[in-house]
Amino acid sequence: MQASNCCDAIDLTSNHFVPLRRVASLSNKRQNAIAEDAIALRPPDARDGAKMFEFVRAHGGLEQNSAYAYMLICERFSQCCVIAEAGEAFAGFVLGVTSPTRPDALFVWQIGVNPQFRSHGLGVHMLETLLLRTRPRFLEAHVATGNAASDALFRSVGRKHAAPIAVSAGYLPDWFPEPHVQEHLYCIGPFAW
Question: What sign has the CA pseudo-torsion 19, 114, 118, 29?
Fold first, then answer.
């Protein structure tokens, strides 16, 4: 089975590998090395929380949380999260949680993709892998005002699964203790597994 973008087809039920054909932002030598390798997708453990913390600090774009928070989520909610690695390179992550008050919903807290691996569908592949692993009835996430990439990603997941998308107010700017944009709540589902 051939994929139509620059990623090879992925068996989302295995949660293991996403072989890349090329990553345009890398040197030709590094592209060839990655083409020979694969991106491994796996649940994280507590030690991966430090990698997430360093990733967010180094690349920006995501709200920085404490290293402890990342480690705790990776340990306590590992089956709701995904780590992507290309050899020794940290390619990205999806950080999710479930709630006792919404056990049928997977809440995605953060999605981060290393700039070297962006624009190749890795974020969607990680999220799809997580959805197939957890099979939630609903997918929820907060999306900041103006975050077009996250808006497009979650809407594409809804379209792919023919699942309705509801967007509500979420967290208003004046709820935050310091200046912050509104965080809209996206609710996708129900999914038909």
Answer: negative
Per-residue tokens: 49: 């929380």
Q: Do residues 120 and 23 make contact, with C-beta atoms less than 8 angstroms apart? A: yes
Beta strands in 3-151 (DSSP E): 17-18, 39-42, 82-86, 89-99, 102-113, 138-144
User: Could you tell me how far CA 192 lies from the centroid of its own chain?
Assistant: 21
Q: Is the pLDDT reported for residue 97 higher than 70?
A: yes
pLDDT single digits (tens) 102-150: 999 999 999 999 999 988 889 999 999 999 999 999 999 999 999 999 9
* Token code pair at residue 96: 């999710």
Which strands, in side-by-side order, build the sheet including 183-188? Answer: 17-18, 39-42, 82-86, 89-99, 102-113, 138-144, 183-188, 165-171
For the entire predicted model, the pTM comes to 0.80
Strands 138-144 and 102-113: parallel
pLDDT band at 21 (very low <50, low <70, confident <90, very high): very low
